């Protein structure tokens, strides 16, 4: 099937809407919430209300992470492959294109948009119909990471004990770095039913944020994305109804954990898209500054005949374009139900690195202006780094890619 390198035209309205929100709401509040860490951006409530009123539960015209991974019977925005074998651009592509625009505005504010959150992607991936109805549309955070388990998520120690008398699970452990953990309605917690049985026994549980056993320990102070809250929790005999376990309660030696991990095939292209959005903001602003300084970018002339700043800019743009196309490919594959673990990791690795690289080079090109708080360039350079860390670090993506290309298992290549 030939690849079409243009963004699907039917999403143009969504892209325009997201861009408008980025300009009118995100950009206008960027610096405010960068400086007021842990203060809730109340301006987003109005936005969420407008979105809800318009019936676009998944985000700005379906542009939020909440829409991703949602199962459908193959409707307009569905992820089901078309019967005629043609291309489908569904919720993954829509979310990606919207997120790029919103993160061009402000990635920290995007990460704290009410009723979004990567936890919804996990719910959509494994929840049954009754759970989808109960949890759908709620703001859901995702709690995997622990003090002793980050990159190696199979090493988590939080336990889920089955209480036969009360017919409930009892969760105990510690979770750190939970994005939106304080503000969300729900927290999807990974815990093991039996540590001796390894990754097969790891399950995800939906915990209501106001559950008294889910105790907020502290909020992190961070380098960037300060508008987004990052919470650390202790789970202290946290009782969860059996209906809140996502997927099957059985400990199946094969398939269970792989199923949970497949959530990342949908979410990694989105995080890559966030990096693409921030990098585009850096490129756009730097182009304005270069133009004001009298430097002309000429795409028809060889790089070595142009000012160094122009040559640097063109090379950054081409790297950015490569990251964008890889990411669109990964999202397109998810929409068309093609296995995309390899491409999702490639997109995340490339975009994470390009985002960080472009942002810092733009700061450098803009000189003293780039490093000062009078511009947002220095903020974007701080914000973008997280996109090369969470949902799997740069090094972990390269490891997954190497395993995929060499045909090796996680046991064979560590
Ligand atoms: C702001 C923020 C928000 C976050 N939000 C969430 C969230 O919502 N939910 C959640 O569950 N987690 C979240 N995280 C956690 C994030 O996913 C982890 O930080 C990340 O997975 C890395 O884990 P770690 O910090 O324990 O580092 P480690 O796993 O200890 O890694 C440290 C370094 O070693 C490298 N490394 C590790 N293993 C290997 C290997 N085998 N080969 C080569 N290099 C390796 C890593 O790439 C990294 O550079 C968040 C983190 C931050 C900072």
Task: Give an account of the 3D structure.
The chain has 414 residues and is an alpha+beta fold. 44% of the residues lie in helices and 13% in strands. The protein contains 13 helices and eight strands. The strands form two sheets. It has a four-stranded mixed β-sheet with strand order 1-4-5-8. Helix 1 packs across helix 3 and helix 8 packs antiparallel against helix 9. It starts with 11 loop residues before the first helix and ends in an 8-residue tail after the last helix. About 5% of the residues have low confidence. Flavin-adenine dinucleotide (FAD) binds next to strand 1, strand 3 and helix 13.
Strand order of the largest sheet: 1-4-5-8
According to DSSP, the number of beta strands is 8
Cofactors, ions, other ligands:
flavin-adenine dinucleotide
Largest sheet: 4 strands, mixed
Strand content: 5-15%
Number of helices: 13
